[in-house]
Amino acid sequence: MDVVKRVHIVPLGYEFDRVLEPICDQRADLVYLLEHPTDDPDRVVPDYREDLVTDLESAAATVRRRECDLTDVYAVLGEVTTLADEHATDSVYVNVSGGGTIAAIGATMACMDVSTDATAYYVEPEGYAHDPTMAPISNGAADVYGLPTYPIESPTRDQIAIMGFLADPAAWDGYHEDRTTPPKKKDCIEFARDVGLSFMADRAPPESHPGGEDKGAFRVLDTHVLDPLETDGYVEIESVGRRRVITLTEQGENAYRAFRHKLEYAENYPGE
């Protein structure tokens, strides 16, 4: 029987006690530190960072450091949901008080995703410092609060797969040869058949229909994929002549980055 581990995920900025003390108190088994990329010229690593890592390694069984753009809410959202998914059978806790405002928003949103079984918590400090590069931005941990979450629905795997198809013109080969225009619904249906998306599982191949493509395939594409994505602002659908073409919006590109880990057929999916 697998042992359930206590896993903590911490976007790491200029904190020390607010990171360390909850991990010590709960005797975490595994800690993920999300640190801003080393190649960012604006990145400032505080002098006490390695001391914190040393203390964490003494307090937890394992500490893993991962780069994550803490100034990008979708990067944090994606990293936290990915890690939570990898530890679906463990108890996952996310410290939203250690990496700054943007990281806190992304981490909290990740815990709101109904498919992410993770608990967000906030650490109230005892006091604050002035220069976070010389000393941690706060000191002490007066209390730890569990945060209320309001469930949000992330895109389904089928929806994420279609978003990935729309995002990558290289994936259009064999489906949509003209890369100067967006793909059509027919292109999405053919792609969905080839990679085995669930909404196409019961649809007969086009050659079995006298008029070509099964009209029902267009209805299930709309119902299960495109209509929800359009409602959420992830895709735009417009008429170009007699065709209905589909474009992934900037918001859709961000959502795809955040949730692409949900795809289960990496070997077959273009770009994975």
TrEMBL record:
Domain spans labelled HFX-2341-like N-terminal: 6-128
Q: Taking every annotated instance into account, which residue ranges of this chain make up the domain DUF6293? A: 147-259
Q: Which residues form a coiled coil?
A: none
A Pfam family cross-referenced in the UniProt record is WHD_DUF6293
Q: InterPro entries attached here?
A: DUF6293_C, HFX_2341-like_N, WH_DNA-bd_sf
Instruction: Write down what this protein is called.
Output: DUF6293 family protein
Annotated source species: Natronosalvus rutilus
